[in-house]
Write a structure and sequence with these properties.
The protein is of the alpha/beta class. The protein is built from six helices and four strands. About 55% of the residues lie in helices and about 10% in strands. It has a four-stranded parallel beta sheet with strand order 2-1-3-4, sandwiched between helices. Helix 1 runs antiparallel to helix 5.
Amino acid sequence: MSTSLKERLEKILELLQRLATESAKGIPIIVEGSNDERALRELCISGEIIAAKTFKSFIHLISEIEKRKQKEVILLMDFDRRGREWTKRLVQSLERMRIKPNLLYWNGLLAFAGREIKDIEGLASYMKTLKKKAGLEDSKV
């Protein structure tokens, strides 16, 4: 395995571990759909995950986030044009409500895997592929 591939795997694993820790502390993660949620669960993310597409509208989603009275939420929308648009709209709305939109994990995944995956849904299979190339296919995330 090339050094850059190994480094990418290590950085993504570290990012996912930090995400799991933040999520376990009670910071909700907002994803686009239920398949994205399923992929995060497969990657051992156990905290609250909110699938945006399960709401009737953007307004209903924002209202639900506001009801939870969180000071921060983690945004993990897809990396395609639509995901970027949703991220931008959510950031603007959350900031108006004085809720911190955490983009650290979205930006990190985009930097380390953005060319390889287009959505959060594909993250679990992407990690399996990277681990297989690294000879680590039996290990947990």
